[in-house]
Amino acid sequence: MDAPTPQTEPMPTITYGPPIAMLAEVTHRCPLSCPYCSNPLELTKRDGELSTEIWVDVFRQAAELGVLQMHLSGGEPASRRDLEDMITACRDHDLYSNLITSGIGLTEKRMVELKKRGLDHVQLSLQGVDAEMADLIGGYKGGYSRKMQVAEWTTALDLPLTLNAVVHEKNIDRLPEMIDLAVAMGARRLEVATVQFHGWADKNRAALMPTREQAKLCGQRVAEARERLKGVLVIDYVPADHHADYPKPCMGGWGSTGLNVVPDGRVMPCHAAHTIPHLVFDNVKDRPLADIWEHSSAFNAYRGFDWMPEPCRSCDRKTRDFGGCRCQAMALTGDAAATDPVCIKSPMHAQLQAMAQADAEGDGELTYRTMPT
Amino acid sequence: MIPETGVPRLLSGCRTKHDKVRGNWVLLAPERAIKLDDIGAAILAETDGTRSLGAILDALATKYNAPRDQISGDVITFLESLRDRRMLEVA
Ligand code: SF4
Ligand code: SF4
Fold first, then answer.
1. Any residues with CB less than 8 A from the CB of A318 and at least 6 apart, and which?
2. pTM, whole model, 2 decimals?
3. Which of A56, A102, A335, A355 lies 20 to 30 Å from A135, alpha-carbon distance?
């Protein structure tokens, strides 16, 4: 169990609009062990997880604060036996509920019940396009066929299905098959997300970093498929930013659109914010969610533009990309306030590109994430 | 183009809601929350899955006292954009 989190000092109030979405990481437990999991290396154990009552109350607070969409994630959210009650709570507070799952732990009976409780949408992760690849990446034998079953139950219940495929060096070339599979499975949306090197993925850079050519081909294929499948399948694409010239707009601006509650109740501006060591996170067990959103020092650390150093400070792109990703700046420069090295204006840019190139050429054994007890 | 006899219907997992905190209507869909202006909200209020596009245009023209052929273009464009994004189908 964690020690009680210290509360942060009162800060000058910076007023922001209310958050649109909340990511509820209800557990770190998961039967899979994907080598790119964004969970922290220090996983929360079962007895450190928030109770049903607290989660239900947090959902109420989130709805009052202005959250519209509740993403239930983990770990594997189906590892919580009270998932059904959480969906009920979402419906009671008129939150749009999205179940982000590997499918393992769901049965047909559970799916019927979840639908009855008001589940709005299922997002199923796809580790590969066949059992061999998927079970290798997920590190779980038989996972692929159970996933296919869950997809069938989902569409049979007329629940919208999104497939989420994390692409990396080992599977990115099979994108056309992923797209065909998504259509065949009756998915409405496909998310193609190039692996992000936070959490466990950072241990697997050499094994997972796609080459510049792979990334380029992937982008072309997405563009072609979007055109061809208009009205059939929507494709969202997160390109490989290590091979780009400008960074992605991090979360639409730090602390501006969403928040993330982790299994033990700490509230973070993004799912990787735990990698910034000096940030202090408040806990829903100690403070109301609205108070945390407005006053938590972790949320205020990189809000707005005042914290920015050069070259971001005087750059006219700052309102578009917010200086890039804080977690990436932290990981690559040791300073979370630095310009994201993905940016061509960063003094570290050349070094990052060289490193990405070396990792792309490199190979390596996969290091799998482990299971919290 | 959606024919006047076509019946538009929001797909499962796509619904409108009045956002009390921000004071406007939104369309909630998989991974999307779309803020609706008054026109979008009015169109979706008439899109009940049983009425045809023609009937929806009639209703909007009467309700807002607007010439039918002037609003039809906007209504069709709006509904088609939702169809392209897999939020709506036309039977
Ligand atoms: S800092 Fe931003 S882009 Fe980076 S992991 Fe966090 S949310 Fe994502
Ligand atoms: S300098 Fe900063 S604000 Fe400008 S493009 Fe680069 S990351 Fe974005």
1. A305, A308, A312
2. 0.88
3. A355
